Amino acid sequence: MLLVSWPPLIGYAQEADVEPTWTLSQAPGMVQRAFDLSARCDLAGATVRYTIDGSAPSVESPVWPGAYRVEATTMLRWIAVVDDVIVARHGAGYLFVEAEVADFSSDLPIVVVDSFGVDINSEGRADSRGPKRPVWSVFIDRDPAPGRASPVSEVDFSGRAGMRVRGQSSTMFPKKQYTLELWDEEDDDQSASLLGFPRESDWILHAPFSDKTLMRNVLAYAWFREMGHYAVKTQYVELFFNHDGNSVSLQDYVGVYVLMEKIKRDSKRVAISKLDEEVNELPDLSGGYIFKKDKGTRNDVNFRTPDGHRFGFVEPDEPTEAQFDYLSDHLAEFEEALYGREFTDPDKGYAAYIDVDSFIDLHLHVEICRNIDGIRLSTYYHKDREGKIHMGPVWDYNLSLGNTTMREGQYPDGWYHDTIYDREYTYFGRLFQDPGFELRHWDRYYQLRKTVFSKTKLSDQIDALTSELSEAQERNFEKWQILGVPVWQNPRGVWERQHHVDEVAWMKNWLFQRLDWLDEQFTPPPVIEAEAMPLPRGGKVTVVLQTPSRRLRNPELFVTLDGSDPRGADNWPTEMAVAIADGEGVALHETAMVRVRAHDGRRWGALGEAQLIVDASLPEVKASQGQNSWWHVVLASGLGLLVLGWLRRRLTSQS
Hints:
Elements: E1 3-4, E2 22-24, E3 29-31, E4 35-41, E5 47-51, E6 67-70, E7 74-82, E8 85-96, H1 99-102, E9 110-114, E10 133-140, E11 157-166, E12 177-182, E13 202-206, H2 216-226, E14 234-242, E15 253-261, E16 289-293, E17 302-304, E18 310-315, H3 321-338, H4 356-369, E19 379-383, E20 389-391, H5 428-431, H6 435-449, H7 455-469, H8 472-479, H9 500-519, E21 527-530, E22 539-544, E23 556-560, E24 578-580, E25 585-588, E26 592-599, E27 608-612, E28 630-631, E29 633-635, E30 648-649
Parallel strand pairs: 3-8, 9-14
Antiparallel strand pairs: 1-2, 2-4, 4-6, 5-7, 7-8, 9-10, 10-11, 11-12, 12-13, 13-15, 14-15, 16-18, 16-19, 17-18, 19-20, 21-22, 21-29, 22-25, 23-24, 23-26, 26-27, 28-30
Helix pairs in contact: 4-6, 7-9
């Protein structure tokens, strides 16, 4: 019985007024035994020609006989010709698998790639600019019922692609990582959904090697998404890559990989406006752009700013002269504002050009992970039409979370940015000269410590990934026997970490020590204590410093009850801010957003805040009744109405 294949890929001609349908007797993908393939095109009057070696057919290629005996791995390609004009194209790849591969089973999705005898690995170059070679790729998701995948299970995607080795330093490793670009029959981009991801044509098969947890990039991208920004989505897979021209065997197994999105403009990726070559005038000329600071390649379009920073265009990758001039001039204007006398002015200074929150979040992300490539390399920026410059998405976190001996990266204490040159610390040296930026940075840090970077949440997240990898990591490290063996940049004690769980435990311990150190680098938010939950009218709220501040000398606490920041734009307490002593109470008579900071007359601590509910139906607390029954609730800063303790006390006079 004939099967209708995926939608046809057509080169239109005047003679073709309808799209032809190609039908195949067997869907492309994995096969175990020889079979007779029937194929036809329903376009009236068309002659079908074909090749069987993966090359593009021409009007001189043999005429398709209607059927072909497929006995080995083969890529067939057809064209429909009318009056010597190619009006339609089609292709199908059939990858033969040996019995031992057909019996392979995984609790992760499986990807099989065949390059039909081309050794792509030998063409890997450190500039990621090797040629993309034609391959056939098959993606197999897990069957929902047993939760397992097999190379001979129903396919999620099967199609042509171009693939090459990618990366910089990682090209030295035997386990290669790849760029995978889905192709149509004319080698143009073809979008498709892989393993449930949004449709796109450009993908990456990331190969964790020196990172023996297999999870540093996966975690880093997840954390940045949880912080409210786009980061590439990820999915663990097990990869077979056959490049010897024979059937796929267990020798072609190359381990645990991570299917990842490539950073590019797309409504489901970096959601900025499209900027094509016809756009050369404002306001459309103002975006969207993606640019990066990274190791340059000879094929990148680069520009240098007046401050000496070299950036490369990502999108558009071949800008017009007007687009090139606009972005380079805009960065120059930003630098002039940043280094000018009024740099803290919200309308004239740096904030008029950049999305401050994205700069803060990326800086925090880099420092928490101590990514020794962060900010100076592998750093992306983007700017939408008539929008500000954003930092992100984050990228390349293999050498983070302690996994490096460079730039003191194996130690959980100390600032990463102290180990790089001022010029590498792009713009942040100046930004932190603004007390408002510094305070906003630390406010955000302590907020994230209660959410994204809570130790409990992080522990659960890392444990979940460890469980997900528990089966496949054994096969990965059987293929790549590097546990307990030093690999480039691995930190101290590698000989003691003989198992995957040892590597994970070391990383988790490093991360928690890192957070403990960071917690002590600024004055944390005060703790807000309330007498009741909810409060009666007149209920008492007290504010207590969490720990003695080594940064502030004899600080006072400044409180507001209207939700405003106690610190004003001039760095002094606002008119709404009330100074209270550590442990002093404030009576509330209505629901309020309480905000508090410590201040020593010159510097401020981080912001503590809590939304406190006053229930007017409860008996009002009079001053003389302050010793009556009450409830003690500790509200940790940033958690709102989280009850840490609930205690009802009765005085002996009431007993």
